Amino acid sequence: MDERGSGPIERIADDILSMRVRGAGRIGRAASRALGELAYGNVSGDLSSDLREAASALLSTRPTAVSLRNAIILTLSGMASLDGPELREDVIRRSGDFITRSRDSVESIGREGAVLIPDNATVLTHCNSSAALSAIYEGYKLGKVRRVINTETRPWRQGHITSRWLAGNGVPVTMIVDSAVNHIMKDVDIVMVGADTVTRCGDLINKIGTSQIALSAGENSVPFHTCAETYKFSPTAFAGADVPIEDRGPKEVADPLRVEDMEGVRFENPIFDVTPGRFIDSIVTERGPISPEEAGMRIDDMIPPELVGHFSWL
Ligand code: RUB
Protein backbone atom coordinates (compact mmCIF):
# COMPACT_ATOMS: atom_id res chain seq x y z
CA MET A 1 0.00 0.00 0.00
CA ASP A 2 1.39 3.42 -0.88
CA GLU A 3 0.46 6.90 0.24
CA ARG A 4 -1.83 7.46 -2.78
CA GLY A 5 -3.78 4.21 -2.35
CA SER A 6 -3.44 0.67 -3.66
CA GLY A 7 -5.26 0.49 -7.01
CA PRO A 8 -3.42 0.21 -10.37
CA ILE A 9 -3.91 3.92 -11.19
CA GLU A 10 -2.67 4.99 -7.76
CA ARG A 11 0.34 2.70 -8.07
CA ILE A 12 1.34 4.02 -11.49
CA ALA A 13 0.72 7.61 -10.34
CA ASP A 14 2.99 7.02 -7.37
CA ASP A 15 5.67 5.41 -9.58
CA ILE A 16 5.66 8.51 -11.80
CA LEU A 17 5.59 10.96 -8.89
CA SER A 18 8.48 9.26 -7.12
CA MET A 19 10.39 8.86 -10.42
CA ARG A 20 10.52 5.06 -10.32
CA VAL A 21 9.07 5.56 -13.78
CA ARG A 22 10.77 8.57 -15.39
CA GLY A 23 11.63 10.02 -18.80
CA ALA A 24 8.93 11.63 -20.91
CA GLY A 25 8.35 8.63 -23.19
CA ARG A 26 8.12 6.08 -20.39
CA ILE A 27 5.81 8.35 -18.40
CA GLY A 28 3.45 8.62 -21.39
CA ARG A 29 3.44 4.86 -21.99
CA ALA A 30 2.89 4.08 -18.29
CA ALA A 31 -0.11 6.43 -18.14
CA SER A 32 -1.60 4.99 -21.32
CA ARG A 33 -1.10 1.44 -20.07
CA ALA A 34 -2.75 2.31 -16.75
CA LEU A 35 -5.83 3.68 -18.55
CA GLY A 36 -6.00 0.60 -20.78
CA GLU A 37 -5.86 -1.66 -17.73
CA LEU A 38 -8.53 0.38 -15.99
CA ALA A 39 -10.83 -0.02 -19.01
CA TYR A 40 -10.05 -3.74 -19.22
CA GLY A 41 -11.05 -4.28 -15.59
CA ASN A 42 -14.16 -2.11 -15.82
CA VAL A 43 -16.94 -4.35 -17.13
CA SER A 44 -20.04 -2.88 -15.53
CA GLY A 45 -19.02 0.36 -13.79
CA ASP A 46 -19.32 3.98 -14.86
CA LEU A 47 -16.31 3.88 -17.17
CA SER A 48 -16.39 7.54 -18.31
CA SER A 49 -16.31 8.91 -14.82
CA ASP A 50 -13.65 6.39 -13.70
CA LEU A 51 -11.48 7.36 -16.68
CA ARG A 52 -11.86 11.05 -15.92
CA GLU A 53 -10.82 10.54 -12.34
CA ALA A 54 -7.87 8.35 -13.34
CA ALA A 55 -6.71 10.81 -16.02
CA SER A 56 -6.72 13.67 -13.52
CA ALA A 57 -4.81 11.61 -10.94
CA LEU A 58 -2.16 10.62 -13.49
CA LEU A 59 -1.81 14.15 -14.83
CA SER A 60 -1.29 15.59 -11.35
CA THR A 61 1.96 13.64 -10.87
CA ARG A 62 4.46 15.64 -12.93
CA PRO A 63 3.67 18.99 -14.52
CA THR A 64 6.31 19.55 -17.21
CA ALA A 65 6.37 16.72 -19.77
CA VAL A 66 3.45 17.18 -22.18
CA SER A 67 3.92 13.55 -23.23
CA LEU A 68 1.80 12.67 -20.20
CA ARG A 69 -1.17 14.84 -21.19
CA ASN A 70 -0.89 13.88 -24.86
CA ALA A 71 -0.71 10.17 -24.03
CA ILE A 72 -3.89 10.52 -21.97
CA ILE A 73 -5.69 12.45 -24.72
CA LEU A 74 -4.63 9.98 -27.43
CA THR A 75 -5.68 7.02 -25.29
CA LEU A 76 -9.03 8.52 -24.30
CA SER A 77 -9.92 10.26 -27.56
CA GLY A 78 -12.88 7.87 -27.99
CA MET A 79 -14.53 9.64 -25.04
CA ALA A 80 -15.40 12.41 -27.50
CA SER A 81 -18.07 10.17 -29.10
CA LEU A 82 -18.37 6.80 -27.31
CA ASP A 83 -19.63 5.36 -24.05
CA GLY A 84 -20.22 1.96 -22.41
CA PRO A 85 -18.73 -1.21 -23.95
CA GLU A 86 -17.67 0.61 -27.15
CA LEU A 87 -15.65 3.07 -25.13
CA ARG A 88 -14.10 0.22 -23.14
CA GLU A 89 -12.97 -1.54 -26.34
CA ASP A 90 -11.75 1.73 -27.80
CA VAL A 91 -9.59 2.67 -24.79
CA ILE A 92 -8.03 -0.81 -24.64
CA ARG A 93 -7.20 -0.65 -28.36
CA ARG A 94 -5.88 2.91 -28.28
CA SER A 95 -3.71 2.16 -25.25
CA GLY A 96 -2.07 -0.75 -27.10
CA ASP A 97 -1.68 1.37 -30.23
CA PHE A 98 -0.13 4.26 -28.32
CA ILE A 99 2.43 2.06 -26.59
CA THR A 100 3.41 0.34 -29.86
CA ARG A 101 3.60 3.64 -31.74
CA SER A 102 5.64 5.24 -28.98
CA ARG A 103 8.20 2.41 -29.00
CA ASP A 104 8.34 2.36 -32.81
CA SER A 105 8.92 6.13 -32.79
CA VAL A 106 12.01 5.73 -30.60
CA GLU A 107 13.38 3.22 -33.12
CA SER A 108 12.61 5.49 -36.08
CA ILE A 109 14.24 8.44 -34.31
CA GLY A 110 17.31 6.23 -33.94
CA ARG A 111 17.54 5.76 -37.71
CA GLU A 112 16.69 9.40 -38.51
CA GLY A 113 19.05 10.84 -35.90
CA ALA A 114 21.99 8.61 -36.86
CA VAL A 115 22.03 10.23 -40.30
CA LEU A 116 22.88 13.59 -38.70
CA ILE A 117 25.93 12.26 -36.84
CA PRO A 118 29.17 13.02 -38.68
CA ASP A 119 31.87 10.34 -39.09
CA ASN A 120 34.24 9.72 -36.20
CA ALA A 121 32.08 11.91 -33.97
CA THR A 122 32.25 12.81 -30.32
CA VAL A 123 28.61 13.15 -29.28
CA LEU A 124 27.54 14.99 -26.15
CA THR A 125 24.29 14.06 -24.42
CA HIS A 126 22.60 15.14 -21.19
CA CYS A 127 20.48 13.31 -18.63
CA ASN A 128 18.94 10.05 -19.81
CA SER A 129 16.82 10.15 -22.94
CA SER A 130 15.81 6.94 -24.68
CA ALA A 131 15.16 8.87 -27.92
CA ALA A 132 18.59 10.55 -27.94
CA LEU A 133 20.27 7.28 -26.96
CA SER A 134 18.49 5.50 -29.79
CA ALA A 135 20.03 7.93 -32.32
CA ILE A 136 23.46 7.80 -30.70
CA TYR A 137 23.50 3.99 -30.55
CA GLU A 138 22.31 3.67 -34.14
CA GLY A 139 25.14 6.04 -35.13
CA TYR A 140 27.56 3.90 -33.16
CA LYS A 141 26.40 0.74 -34.95
CA LEU A 142 27.05 2.54 -38.27
CA GLY A 143 30.64 3.16 -37.10
CA LYS A 144 30.16 6.93 -36.85
CA VAL A 145 30.49 7.47 -33.09
CA ARG A 146 34.00 7.56 -31.66
CA ARG A 147 32.86 8.38 -28.14
CA VAL A 148 30.04 9.82 -26.11
CA ILE A 149 30.45 12.47 -23.45
CA ASN A 150 27.61 12.50 -21.00
CA THR A 151 26.79 14.75 -18.10
CA GLU A 152 26.27 13.47 -14.60
CA THR A 153 22.97 15.44 -14.44
CA ARG A 154 22.47 16.81 -10.97
CA PRO A 155 20.53 16.48 -8.79
CA TRP A 156 19.15 13.06 -9.72
CA ARG A 157 22.26 11.87 -11.61
CA GLN A 158 20.33 10.28 -14.46
CA GLY A 159 23.63 10.48 -16.38
CA HIS A 160 24.74 7.38 -14.46
CA ILE A 161 21.96 5.40 -16.16
CA THR A 162 23.11 6.71 -19.55
CA SER A 163 26.79 5.96 -18.93
CA ARG A 164 26.08 2.46 -17.63
CA TRP A 165 23.85 1.68 -20.61
CA LEU A 166 26.38 2.95 -23.15
CA ALA A 167 29.32 1.18 -21.52
CA GLY A 168 27.23 -2.00 -21.24
CA ASN A 169 26.58 -1.83 -24.98
CA GLY A 170 30.24 -1.30 -25.85
CA VAL A 171 30.06 2.43 -26.60
CA PRO A 172 33.10 4.41 -25.34
CA VAL A 173 31.68 6.88 -22.83
CA THR A 174 33.13 9.63 -20.67
CA MET A 175 31.10 11.12 -17.82
CA ILE A 176 31.61 14.74 -16.80
CA VAL A 177 30.03 16.93 -14.14
CA ASP A 178 27.44 19.31 -15.53
CA SER A 179 29.64 22.37 -15.02
CA ALA A 180 32.38 20.92 -17.30
CA VAL A 181 30.21 21.21 -20.43
CA ASN A 182 31.50 24.54 -21.68
CA HIS A 183 35.10 23.52 -21.03
CA ILE A 184 34.76 20.30 -23.03
CA MET A 185 32.63 21.64 -25.89
CA LYS A 186 35.74 22.25 -28.04
CA ASP A 187 36.06 18.42 -28.29
CA VAL A 188 32.40 17.84 -29.24
CA ASP A 189 31.12 17.39 -32.83
CA ILE A 190 27.37 17.17 -32.17
CA VAL A 191 24.95 17.48 -29.24
CA MET A 192 21.91 15.20 -29.01
CA VAL A 193 19.45 15.49 -26.14
CA GLY A 194 15.88 14.41 -25.45
CA ALA A 195 12.72 16.46 -24.88
CA ASP A 196 10.00 16.68 -22.27
CA THR A 197 8.01 19.27 -24.17
CA VAL A 198 8.45 21.15 -27.43
CA THR A 199 6.25 24.23 -27.67
CA ARG A 200 4.36 25.41 -30.75
CA CYS A 201 7.11 27.91 -31.61
CA GLY A 202 9.81 25.26 -31.17
CA ASP A 203 11.17 26.05 -27.71
CA LEU A 204 12.51 22.95 -25.98
CA ILE A 205 11.85 22.05 -22.36
CA ASN A 206 14.24 19.38 -21.16
CA LYS A 207 16.35 18.47 -18.13
CA ILE A 208 17.82 21.42 -16.24
CA GLY A 209 21.14 22.37 -17.80
CA THR A 210 20.04 21.72 -21.38
CA SER A 211 19.87 25.45 -22.15
CA GLN A 212 23.46 25.99 -20.97
CA ILE A 213 24.59 23.17 -23.23
CA ALA A 214 22.76 24.77 -26.17
CA LEU A 215 24.36 28.16 -25.45
CA SER A 216 27.80 26.61 -25.31
CA ALA A 217 27.14 24.57 -28.47
CA GLY A 218 26.02 27.73 -30.29
CA GLU A 219 29.09 29.65 -29.12
CA ASN A 220 31.34 26.83 -30.36
CA SER A 221 29.44 26.22 -33.65
CA VAL A 222 28.53 22.68 -32.58
CA PRO A 223 25.19 21.44 -34.02
CA PHE A 224 22.50 20.99 -31.34
CA HIS A 225 19.66 18.52 -31.97
CA THR A 226 16.80 17.35 -29.80
CA CYS A 227 15.21 13.94 -30.35
CA ALA A 228 11.45 14.13 -29.76
CA GLU A 229 8.54 11.92 -30.68
CA THR A 230 5.71 14.11 -32.03
CA TYR A 231 3.55 13.44 -28.96
CA LYS A 232 6.10 15.48 -26.97
CA PHE A 233 4.94 18.58 -28.84
CA SER A 234 2.47 20.74 -26.95
CA PRO A 235 -0.85 21.54 -28.65
CA THR A 236 -1.38 24.55 -26.36
CA ALA A 237 1.91 26.02 -25.08
CA PHE A 238 3.18 28.60 -27.55
CA ALA A 239 6.53 29.39 -25.93
CA GLY A 240 8.70 27.99 -23.16
CA ALA A 241 7.31 30.47 -20.64
CA ASP A 242 3.89 28.77 -20.99
CA VAL A 243 5.18 25.46 -19.59
CA PRO A 244 5.21 24.88 -15.82
CA ILE A 245 8.67 23.92 -14.58
CA GLU A 246 8.67 21.27 -11.87
CA ASP A 247 10.54 22.15 -8.66
CA ARG A 248 11.28 19.09 -6.53
CA GLY A 249 12.35 20.85 -3.35
CA PRO A 250 15.53 21.12 -1.26
CA LYS A 251 16.09 17.50 -0.26
CA GLU A 252 17.33 16.55 -3.72
CA VAL A 253 19.88 19.39 -3.76
CA ALA A 254 21.25 19.49 -0.22
CA ASP A 255 22.71 16.47 1.49
CA PRO A 256 19.44 14.81 2.58
CA LEU A 257 20.96 14.02 5.98
CA ARG A 258 22.00 17.61 6.57
CA VAL A 259 19.21 19.62 4.97
CA GLU A 260 17.79 20.46 8.40
CA ASP A 261 21.20 21.96 9.37
CA MET A 262 21.20 24.52 6.58
CA GLU A 263 19.43 27.19 8.58
CA GLY A 264 18.88 30.42 6.68
CA VAL A 265 19.56 28.81 3.28
CA ARG A 266 16.78 28.80 0.72
CA PHE A 267 16.93 26.13 -1.96
CA GLU A 268 15.44 26.10 -5.42
CA ASN A 269 15.38 22.92 -7.43
CA PRO A 270 13.94 23.57 -10.89
CA ILE A 271 14.50 20.33 -12.74
CA PHE A 272 13.79 21.44 -16.31
CA ASP A 273 14.70 24.53 -18.32
CA VAL A 274 13.80 26.22 -21.59
CA THR A 275 16.07 26.23 -24.62
CA PRO A 276 14.79 28.77 -27.16
CA GLY A 277 14.11 27.33 -30.61
CA ARG A 278 16.75 29.61 -32.17
CA PHE A 279 19.49 27.53 -30.51
CA ILE A 280 18.16 24.27 -31.97
CA ASP A 281 19.40 23.02 -35.34
CA SER A 282 16.72 20.36 -35.67
CA ILE A 283 14.11 18.38 -33.84
CA VAL A 284 14.51 14.73 -34.81
CA THR A 285 11.04 13.20 -34.95
CA GLU A 286 9.91 9.71 -35.95
CA ARG A 287 9.27 11.15 -39.42
CA GLY A 288 12.66 12.81 -39.73
CA PRO A 289 14.24 16.06 -38.64
CA ILE A 290 12.16 19.23 -38.70
CA SER A 291 12.91 22.86 -37.92
CA PRO A 292 11.64 24.21 -34.56
CA GLU A 293 9.10 26.45 -36.37
CA GLU A 294 7.29 23.37 -37.75
CA ALA A 295 6.42 21.97 -34.30
CA GLY A 296 2.95 23.55 -34.01
CA MET A 297 1.78 22.13 -37.34
CA ARG A 298 2.99 18.64 -36.49
CA ILE A 299 1.05 18.39 -33.24
CA ASP A 300 -2.13 19.71 -34.90
CA ASP A 301 -1.86 16.79 -37.34
CA MET A 302 -1.59 14.30 -34.46
CA ILE A 303 -4.03 15.90 -31.98
CA PRO A 304 -6.42 18.25 -33.79
CA PRO A 305 -7.51 21.40 -31.88
CA GLU A 306 -11.16 20.11 -31.62
CA LEU A 307 -9.89 17.06 -29.74
CA VAL A 308 -7.82 19.22 -27.39
CA GLY A 309 -10.97 21.29 -26.79
CA HIS A 310 -12.87 18.15 -25.82
CA PHE A 311 -10.37 17.55 -23.02
CA SER A 312 -10.63 21.02 -21.46
CA TRP A 313 -11.73 19.28 -18.22
CA LEU A 314 -8.27 17.66 -17.95
C1 RUB B 1 14.26 13.14 -18.15
C2 RUB B 1 14.60 14.04 -19.29
C3 RUB B 1 14.72 13.40 -20.65
C4 RUB B 1 13.36 13.50 -21.38
C5 RUB B 1 13.32 12.61 -22.63
O1 RUB B 1 13.87 13.86 -16.99
O2 RUB B 1 14.68 15.24 -19.17
O3 RUB B 1 15.68 14.08 -21.43
O4 RUB B 1 12.33 13.08 -20.51
O5 RUB B 1 13.44 11.27 -22.27
P1 RUB B 1 13.37 13.04 -15.70
P2 RUB B 1 12.96 10.11 -23.28
O6 RUB B 1 14.43 12.05 -15.36
O7 RUB B 1 13.20 14.10 -14.66
O8 RUB B 1 12.05 12.38 -16.06
O9 RUB B 1 13.66 10.38 -24.58
O10 RUB B 1 13.41 8.83 -22.62
O11 RUB B 1 11.49 10.20 -23.40
Care to describe what's here?
With 314 residues, the protein is an alpha/beta fold. The protein folds into two domains: 8-105 and 304-310, translation initiation factor eif-2b, domain 1 (Four Helix Bundle (Hemerythrin (Met), subunit A)); 108-302, Translation initiation factor eif-2b, domain 2 (Rossmann fold). The chain is built from eleven helices and ten strands. The strands form two sheets. It has a seven-stranded mixed β-sheet, with helices on both faces. The longest helix is centred in the first third of the chain and has 33 residues, at 84-116. It starts with 7 loop residues before the first helix and ends with a helix. The chain binds ribulose-1,5-diphosphate. The site of ribulose-1,5-diphosphate has 16 residues, from helix 2, helix 6 and strand 6.
Main beta sheet, described? 7 strands, mixed
Helix content: 40-55%
SSE string: HHHHHEHEHEHEEEHEEEEHH
% residues in beta strands: 5-15%
In one word, what is the shape? globular
Mean pLDDT: 95
CATH domain class of the largest domain: Alpha Beta
CATH topology of the largest domain: the name is Rossmann fold
Rg for CA atoms: 20 Å
The helix count comes to 11
